[in-house]
Amino acid sequence: MRKTKRRQTARPREWRRKADAASDKGPGARRPEKAMNPETAAKPNPIEQFELVRLWEHEINGVEVSFTNASLYMLLAALGVVLLMVFATSRKALTPGRGQAAAEMLYEFVAGMVRQIAGEEGMRFFPFVFSLFAFVLIANLIGLFPYTFSVTSQIIVTFGFAVFVMAIVVAYGFYRNGFGFLKLFVPHGVPALVLVVLIPIEIISFLSRPISLSVRLFANMLAGHITLAVFGGFVALLLGAGAWAALAPVPLLAITALYALELLVACLQAFVFSVLTCVYLNDAIHPGH
Amino acid sequence: MASELQLVGAGLAAIGTGAAAIGVGIIFGNFVNGALRNPSAAAGQFTNAIIGAALAEGLGIFAFLIAILLYLK
Description:
The structure holds 2 protein chains of 2 kinds.
Chain A: H1 2-9, H2 13-24, H3 31-36, H4 38-42, E1 54-56, E2 59-60, E3 63-64, E4 67-68, H5 69-88, H6 98-118, H7 126-143, H8 155-177, H9 192-207, H10 209-239, H11 249-285
Antiparallel strand pairs in A: 1-4, 2-3
Chain B: H1 3-37, H2 42-72
């Protein structure tokens, strides 16, 4: 809560005035007293890690285009994917080395997934799905290093991906099937009376897909990182509490276990994101099912 | 002042995440159950299990979203 205040001060003047006026009423009004309380101020803040920091401030015609730490880590993730693939395919060998084997496994894994879910025709989307999977995976894994920033824990990043996926689904669905794409909303073999209820439900479920797709990844990463930070805060609090410091290794061990879980979640969520992308692409290719 | 009621509402909405956890547990429990009966068919159904778990989890995430919206409002 305090961090939003700090963020606003860096904005252009007219924005700041609007933000200050808005924070006079509403929940913003009770924040200062919280900050003055020394007990709450001394506690480690588990959501501080998601703060956007401007590394290079810039503005074009009043639209902010600053280079933030999120941009930096997105660039790093993209670079990581490119470097992994370039390095892995630089020395092609019949018996693959370590890097080549990793790249081939990744390729086979995603290709098998696309073929199984979206069919042979879905393979034209393979480069897209592979880029998405590799980027999300690398971004998740980079975010697990201490003191780094997790790009996928920002809702706008995942929402951007999800809207892009759904835009492709809708565009390709209409391009391939014409208005036959709308059959997606009409399950066949259902009595006409039930359709009256079912069609609105199908439309709502289709419209909520970008939200659920983006929030799933975002919420998983956010919750995981907050949990790690909260347990880290337990260690710090116990170490500072005299004799209770003897208990400090307990949350420390819990962090190790949670970290293993987060490693699993990071890979699983990248997988789930691309699996659902394939499922939605399959809807665009075969809308009658 | 609606803020206390907001917090109560956020807590109630968070129950939904626990319900989604039960759903995901049922899906994977049944997947393992079936996989032990017929291990040769398990590999082909793993993706389906993941999709089902993701959809069940999605509903829990909606509950989480409502809780967050109520909490931060």
